[in-house]
Amino acid sequence: MKNALYVLLIALLLASAYMVVGCGGSEGGDAEQEQAADEGSVDGGDEVEDLATFTAVGTYESADGKVITLKPDGTFESDAWGSPVSGTYLCTDDELGKWVDLAFGDGSSISMSAMLTGNEVAAIVDVETGTQYTKE
């Protein structure tokens, strides 16, 4: 019985390692971004415990025309909150899902739920308001 548990544990560890190693950058991404992902950093440039396995760079627009632009250098610009704002963002995975965490210049922050197609974000959702921003 103990041997079966050890075999199961080893199989789970190998499967987890395969998932982490097997998930990479998107097709057409630049080499620097893919190298950063391989070194444990994500689109925000910071090391995180829950490494993101998806790419969020792009421009996202809501139904009412508000825009959030996530840049390759880990910064963002937006008019989604009334006036133009900017800051940094970080992509994370956790047990509740995939997230794009925005940190504003004034020190405030918001976590937006990421909706994926493959390993690329197709839309982000402001969980506080329910507003969806779809990738252009």
Topology:
Layout (H helix, E strand, L loop, with lengths): L1 H21 L8 H8 L19 E4 L5 E4 L4 E4 L6 E10 L2 E8 L4 E9 L2 E7 L4 E5 L1
Antiparallel strand pairs: 1-2, 1-8, 2-3, 3-4, 4-5, 5-6, 6-7, 7-8
Structural class: alpha+beta
Mean pLDDT: 75
Number of domains: 1
H and E order? HHEEEEEEEE
Helix content: 10-25%
Number of helices: 2
Give the overall form: globular
The CATH architecture comes to Beta Barrel
Q: Using the coordinates shown, work out and report the CATH topology.
A: Lipocalin
Rg, alpha carbons: 17 Å
The main β sheet shows up as: 8 strands, antiparallel, barrel
Distance between the termini: 54 Å
CATH classification class:
Mainly Beta
Strand content: 35-45%
The largest sheet has its strands arranged as 1-2-3-4-5-6-7-8
Which regions contain 5 or more consecutive residues with pLDDT less than 50?
5-9, 11-49
Using DSSP, what is the number of strands?
8
Provide structural commentary:
- By secondary structure, this protein is an alpha+beta fold.
- The chain has one domain (2-135): Lipocalin.
- It is 21% helix and 38% strand.
- It has two helices and eight strands, in the order ααββββββββ.
- It has helices spanning 2-22, 31-38; strands at 58-61, 67-70, 75-78, 85-94, 97-104, 109-117, 120-126, 131-135.
- The protein has an eight-stranded antiparallel barrel.
- A hairpin with a 2-residue loop joins strand 4 (85-94) and strand 5.
- The longest helix is centred in the first third of the chain and has 21 residues, at 2-22.
- The protein is globular, with a radius of gyration of 17 Å.
- The model is unreliable at 5-9 and 11-49 (pLDDT under 50).
